[in-house]
Amino acid sequence: MSQKRVILITGGGSGIGRATARKFSAAGEHVVIADINESSGYRVVNEIKSANGDAEYVSVDVANDQSVVAMANEVNDRHGHIDVLVNCAGILQNISKAEDMDLEEHDRVWAVNYRGTYLCCQSIGTIMSKQTQSGSIVNISSMCAMFGSPTNTAYHAAKGAIRSFTKSAAIQYAHEGIRVNSIHPGYTETPFTIAPFSLPGALESRVSKIPLGRLASAEEIANPVLYLACEDSSYVTGAELVVDGGFLAQ
Question: Cβ contacts of residue 218 below 8 Å, gap of 6+?
Answer without folding.
Answer: 15, 16, 18, 19, 20, 188, 189, 190
